[in-house]
């Protein structure tokens, strides 16, 4: 009998503790690279459209400048702009390290105090699963994802979903956060253009992937624990080679170019030629109006792109439908990789433009245990998402975040509840369950004492549980023991 009661007390307390700390929640962040909002209108995403209208959704999300893959994925995962996390492009020259970088450890380690969500989750004793998410290959202070899969295009979309669920259902280290990345429709849209039937086909395939994730949640009965956020890093637009601006015709051999169209970092080979080179570019830009040129102190403030180590000294940004001479090189690469023939009128997919442009906006919708259904919210910034991740995972948000917590409040069912009010709820539920259990014990005892035909020696030893000090002792000690036993209780999903 004592054992049954102890279990009951444990049970009554475990549930509120888990609820208060969100220890029971699982978060999946799904990114389909360069999925633009217009793709929902092609008539090939019936499942996703229904799921999306049942979810919390926004017409679009606002992303960061430049609207490129690595900068935006890292802003989603850290909650700060490119100037802070230092991933200022898919490639750049670093004036402090005096070297140029593409995808590398250094790219993702500009400021050591800024940690992506999968690392914060590990630091909070969670297990992160990283499915090809940009930047997740590298350790931060020696810590990495518990489960990880390096970028591997041969692993098809369904295999990736299966692997993700193996991580979540892992008996020893169940993943409570998965960063799930798919390189399409970006990959193919660069070569074929976002308008091509090839992309419509891929979008239909991704609709099936979204459905597969949803079905697996149901199949494993995880609806009461899982939260899924579907998003992209940026949109996509198209351009043709006839719209290439060849900057080498303006500045010749006097500079090095880093990054890729439509945003290039220009570094003069001779430092004191900066003003002359800038003026040349500005003159042409003023006449052609197909690109803009900026010195570091002229970059629009709304871009939050001021980083003297990894930006500039000159930044050129092409207008929509335009790109720079590096597009010729890319075209050759697409020709080989996709067996296509290139001419001046091929449509290529391009992104990276000003983040105020509609076709550059990413998608957002979310559903699951803590997320409101049938709910549309105003477009918000991708850097606001960190507050949402932290809330779902029960992590206290780092103090350096640059987003706004108010913007994501309308997404959560319990967002009215602050951390403190959750603790109040926890305390109250412990008190109430203690009272209920005490009443139950008193009743049982009273009932037994009054069963005249049972010899007293049969239940004499049970009197001790009514001893006040013992009762309080056992309840006070339960929170620790519940946390300790939590993994055995909730591992089995
Ligand atoms: C998707 O929905 C549209 C309109 O609701 C319908 O015409 C079309 O047949 C559906 N497609 C599939 C594959 O179910
Ligand atoms: C969306 O909600 C409707 C109405 O509740 C339901 O019939 C439908 O199955 C839901 N669809 C998805 C994909 O969740
Ligand atoms: C980065 O990539 C570009 C384009 O592919 C290449 O030209 C450059 O050499 C690479 N830089 C480094 C440091 O690997
Ligand atoms: C990439 O994925 C394929 C298909 O799942 C697999 O056969 C291969 O071993 C993987 N490569 C690496 C390096 O993991
Ligand atoms: C830029 O244009 C101005 C006026 O049109 C001209 O005086 C100047 O020489 C030009 N500068 C360069 C570097 O071409
Ligand atoms: C490339 O495409 C051409 C014609 O479209 C075709 O004949 C050829 O077999 C293809 N090559 C490869 C390697 O797929």
From TrEMBL:
User: Membrane-spanning regions, if any?
Assistant: 423-447
Source superkingdom: Eukaryota
GO MF annotations in UniProt: hydrolase activity
InterPro entries per the UniProt record, alphabetical: Alkaline_phosphatase_core_sf, Phosphodiest/P_Trfase
Q: Which residues form the signal peptide?
A: 1-20
Keywords tagged on the record:
Membrane, Signal, Transmembrane, Transmembrane helix
Keyword Zinc, does the record have it? no
The protein here is known as Ectonucleotide pyrophosphatase/phosphodiesterase
* Species for this entry: Polypedilum vanderplanki (Sleeping chironomid midge)
């Amino acid at each position: 009998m004592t054992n049954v009661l102890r279990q009951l007390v444990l049970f009554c307390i475990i549930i509120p503790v888990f609820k208060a700390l969100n220890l029971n929640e699982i978060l999946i962040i799904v990114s389909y690279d360069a999925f633009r909002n217009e793709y929902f209108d092609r008539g090939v995403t019936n499942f996703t459209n229904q799921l999306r209208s049942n979810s919390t959704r926004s017409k679009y999300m606002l992303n960061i400048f430049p609207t490129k893959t690595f900068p935006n994925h890292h802003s989603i995962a850290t909650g700060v702009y490119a100037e802070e996390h230092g991933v200022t492009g898919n490639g750049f020259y670093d004036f402090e390290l005096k070297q140029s970088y593409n995808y590398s450890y250094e790219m993702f380690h500009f400021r050591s105090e800024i940690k992506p969500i999968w690392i914060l989750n590990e630091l909070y004793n969670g297990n992160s699963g990283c499915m090809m998410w940009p930047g997740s290959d590298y350790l931060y202070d020696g810590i990495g994802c518990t489960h990880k899969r390096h970028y591997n295009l041969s692993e098809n979309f369904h295999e990736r979903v299966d692997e993700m669920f193996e991580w979540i259902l892992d008996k020893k280290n169940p993943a409570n956060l998965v960063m799930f990345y798919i390189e399409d429709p970006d990959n193919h849209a660069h070569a074929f253009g976002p308008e091509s039937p090839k992309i419509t086909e891929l979008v239909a395939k991704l609709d099936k992937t979204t459905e597969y994730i949803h079905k697996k949640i149901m199949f494993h009965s995880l609806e009461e624990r899982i939260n899924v956020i579907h998003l992209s890093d940026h949109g996509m637009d198209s351009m043709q080679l006839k719209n290439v601006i060849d900057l080498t015709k303006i500045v010749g051999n006097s500079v090095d170019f880093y990054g890729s169209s439509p945003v290039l970092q220009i570094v003069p080979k001779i430092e004191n030629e900066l003003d002359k080179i800038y003026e040349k570019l500005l003159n042409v830009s003023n006449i052609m109006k197909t690109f803009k040129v900026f010195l570091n102190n002229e970059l629009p403030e709304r871009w939050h792109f001021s980083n003297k180590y990894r930006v500039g000294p000159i930044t050129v940004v092409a207008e929509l439908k335009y790109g720079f001479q590096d597009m010729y090189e890319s075209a050759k690469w697409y020709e080989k990789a996709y067996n296509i023939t290139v001419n001046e009128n091929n449509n290529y997919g391009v992104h990276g433009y000003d983040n105020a442009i509609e076709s550059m906006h990413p998608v957002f919708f979310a559903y699951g245990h803590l997320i409101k259904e049938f709910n549309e919210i105003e477009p918000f910034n991708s850097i606001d998402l960190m507050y949402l991740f932290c809330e779902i995972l029960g992590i206290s948000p780092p103090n350096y975040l640059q987003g706004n917590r108010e913007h994501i409040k309308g997404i959560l069912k319990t967002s009215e509840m602050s951390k403190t009010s959750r603790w109040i709820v926890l305390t109250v539920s412990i008190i109430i369950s203690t009272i209920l259990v005490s009443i139950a014990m008193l009743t049982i005892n009273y009932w037994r004492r009054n069963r005249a035909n049972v010899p007293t020696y049969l239940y004499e030893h049970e009197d001790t549980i009514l001893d006040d000090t013992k009762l309080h002792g056992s309840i006070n000690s339960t929170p620790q023991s519940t946390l300790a036993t939590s993994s055995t209780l909730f591992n089995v999903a």
